[in-house]
Every structure is written in C-alpha cells, then in structure tokens.
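Record Arginase, 304 aa.
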Amino acid sequence: MAAAISLIGAPTDIGAGSLGARMGPEAMRVAGLQAALERHGLQVEDLGNLAGPPNPWQPPVDGYRHLDAVVAWNQAVHDAMLAALQRQRLPILLGGDHCLGLGSISAVARHCRATGKKLRVLWLDAHADFNTNSLTPSGNIHGMPVACLCGLGPQALIGMSGQVPALNPKWIRQIGIRSVDPGEKRLVHQTGLEVFDMRYIDEMGMRHTMELALATLDAQTHLHVSFDVDFLDPPIAPGVGTTVPGGPTYREAQLCMEMIADTGRLGSLDVMELNPALDVRNQTAELAVDLIESLFGKSTLMRA
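=>
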C-alpha cells in the first residue's frame, strides 16, 4: 500500500437527483480527513477541487440528464486520478455524486493496463448503479456508472479508459446492495455481476462476505474501493440523497474496511454521495473519515 496520498475534490451533483453532494469534499475536509490520515504516518497532499460545468438542473434528454456536463466532470476526474497514479500516489476522490466513479475507475483501469496489474473493484453501495438510458426511471447518471464501465452506455462515457469495456464484470464485487430497479435487476443477472446484497450479508455475515469479495487478490492486483456513503444504514449516515433502510451497521462497516486494509492492496479510493445539506452536524462526514482511517489501518489492537 502506498504511503503517499493525494486528495482530489470533485464538487458536483451533476449526475444526482438532489442537490448538495457538491459540498461533500468540503465536509470531508471540515471533518479532518487529512489530519486523520497523517496520524497514521501517511504523507497526504490535498490537490484542492477540480472545476467543471455548473448543474443546470434540466430534465432528461434521450434518457440522460446533463450528459455533456457529466462527460466533462468525468474527464476532469479521469485526468486527475491518472496523474496521481502515474506519480505513484494513492488517489482519494472526494465526491460529488457517484457518476464520477466512471471517470475515476476508467483512470484506474487505464493505469492497470499500462502497468500490467490486475484490477479488482469493490463497489460499496445501496444501489447496483447498473441502469441504462432505456431502463432508468429518472435519467440520473449516478445510477449508471457500473453499466457504463461494463460497456453499456454512450460512447463518450464508455470509452474514457481508452478501451471498451473499461472493466470485465468479473472484476467487480458489489457489497451492501438493497435497492435495484426492475429492469436493472434483469441486466445485473444477465451480465453476471457478483453482488453481495444485504440478504447475503444478513445470512452469511460481513466476514464471510468480505473473504469472498477479497479472494484471489495477490501482489499483482490493484484494489479500488468505490464507497458510496449510502452503503451505510441511514440512522448512522443520514447525509445522503438516496437513503435506503437496512444497510450495514457501524461495526459491519468497520469490519469491511478493516478486512480491506488487511490485504495491503488498496490502490485508490472514491468517497461519494456525501450530501452535507441533508446531514446532521456533519456526522456522516465524520463517520466517513472514521471508516477511511480503518481502510488505512486503524484498529483497536496491534494486529500481526
């Protein structure tokens, strides 16, 4: 695991169905993310915020809301993430809505091809984000990034990594899923995505879930974690625009992050959909910082 970290803010809610995620990066900073990471001996640079078009708040066109602006924001994210990876730093993307996972993971996929690494993506989310313009009820592109990464979407988004598809669906593990639209459900099944939904976690436990999700990682694997804050149970994380009851508890989320840290393979991270306008005294941002600390090795006791 790299000890040099770059924080990259992407203050936009361009792909979301509610306003406010554009304030997420600052809420993370106010919650003390940089200092928290530095306490663990990590060298952290904050690159500030990326710039992009404002949110015009328009209705969908051909099943997509704000497509051109979404492309512009994702290209900016792609370029910033790739530059950090090429400097051998571990980038943390501070969102912003989850459509930005498309630019982020496209950059990681491009970097892995260039360096001969295998890629594993953990998608921690209440939603599968596997809609297409013909399936989406809303046209909000934050419900489409995984589908786009798998080659299902407009050319301007699916080609961002330099290869279509950017990801083989077999490289993705989705964890915490509990809200999937009807047409999306069929597409997830047809594509063969590996999904550990909340029923699976309830029945088998978070430890078993993460053992499977992290199986076969080796020294040649780059692990990318895309963490949508709505992954968490809403009572502990109210500051998101798309809350779904019944998510992982605080302890389940901590175990998830600690087991990722134990692999030593984390190479890049997205923290998405934090919406301070819906939060209570910044508690969701503070919880996110706490969980990110665990991703980088915070634990109660010294572990072998």
